[in-house]
Amino acid sequence: MDEQSRAELERRRRSIALALVLGALVLLVFLMSIVKWGGHILP
Amino acid sequence: MASAAALSVRSTATVGDFFALLKPRVMSLVIFTALVGIVVAPGAMHPLTAFTALLCIAVGAGASGALNMAYDSDIDALMARTAGRPIPMGRLSREEALGFGYALAAGSVALMWLFVGELAAALLAFTIFFYVCVYTLWLKRRTPQNIVIGGLAGALPPAIGWAATTGSLSLAPTVLVAIVFLWTPPHFWALALFRSDDYARAGVPMLPVVSGKRATRWNIFAYSLILAPLGLTPAFIGLGGPIYLACATALGAWFVWQAAAVLRERDESREPAARRLFGVSLLYLFALFAALLFERLAHVAPLGGWI
């Protein structure tokens, strides 16, 4: 594998890792909002 | 404008390189001591809140590690122990590490503030500030007391955990912090004894470099004599029970014995006793906190508080 394809592969892996981390963060914030403020925070 | 070389450096960074910036081995000890702080503190916490608190502490510790590696990349390149890190190896740029570290630091403190508590968030922010600004940028290259004072950053996680559960601080978390604080110098001076050439090459004024190995051995021994009895204290303030007291007594005696072996060591090229003490000190702290955790999970009643 040449350097350019390896760099491309690593870029894709970094993007996937970032997407997974952000997805987990969104889920955590959603769940923690329910834990802290309950399920009826909107009027 | 970024040079072609810099672009090339950026493009080869792997997910593992970013993970290595978090200093996962240091992080594991931070997570464990913080977990003990969370569990042994009085009161209950929702499991998801406890998980969030632990995550924030872990990410905050990782952010500190990343910022430390960014600011110390010049000296890391000069030491055998750290030359393989992502920045000295040219796989990651210093700027990437700085951005990564500051983003994680801000994110972990904000999340802690929002979902766990103000005091825990403030303590986490102070810990990151202390490790990065006070230890890394100020003390590390200026004084042999760098790890003595800087050790406060590594000692605070049990108090952050405690504050996450109770929203306050008291004598018990202060004692836990004091134990880790006094454990830090002998632990790192043992490392510095068998890595003194590394530190000398990089110009880091660790105690063996500045005051010599003899003075370092005496300092290690003196700290071990203070640490061993301090390790017993949780049993006298209503935090630890009989299992803890037995473990702390045996572990403290073992620590002092190993420190005495470092004091008697004559093999200055290989420093086998210092290497042994480095491992024993890790085991000491882990076992001490594990005993507290075990007693709390097994509902072993603490000994009556004498203080």
Short structural summary:
Helix content of chain A is 81%, strand content 0%.
Structure description:
Chain A contains 1 helix and no strands. Chain A has 43 residues and is mostly helical. The longest helix of chain A has 35 residues. Chain B has 307 residues and is mainly alpha-helical. Helix content of chain B is 75%, strand content 0%. Chain B is built from 15 helices and no strands. In chain B, α3 packs antiparallel against α4, α3 packs parallel to α9 and α4 runs antiparallel to α9. The longest helix of chain B has 26 residues. Chain B is flat and about 50 Å long.
Indicate the topology.
The complex is a heterodimer of chains A (43) and B (307).
Chain A: H1 3-37
Chain B: H1 4-11, H2 15-21, H3 24-40, H4 47-71, H5 73-76, H6 94-115, H7 118-139, H8 146-155, H9 157-166, H10 171-194, H11 196-202, H12 207-210, H13 213-232, H14 242-264, H15 272-297
Helix pairs in contact in B: 3-4, 3-9, 3-15, 4-6, 4-7, 4-9, 6-7, 7-8, 7-9, 8-10, 9-10, 10-13, 10-15, 13-14, 14-15
Which key phrases capture this entry?
heterodimer; A: 43 residues; mainly alpha; 1 helix; 81% helix; B: 307 residues; disordered N terminus
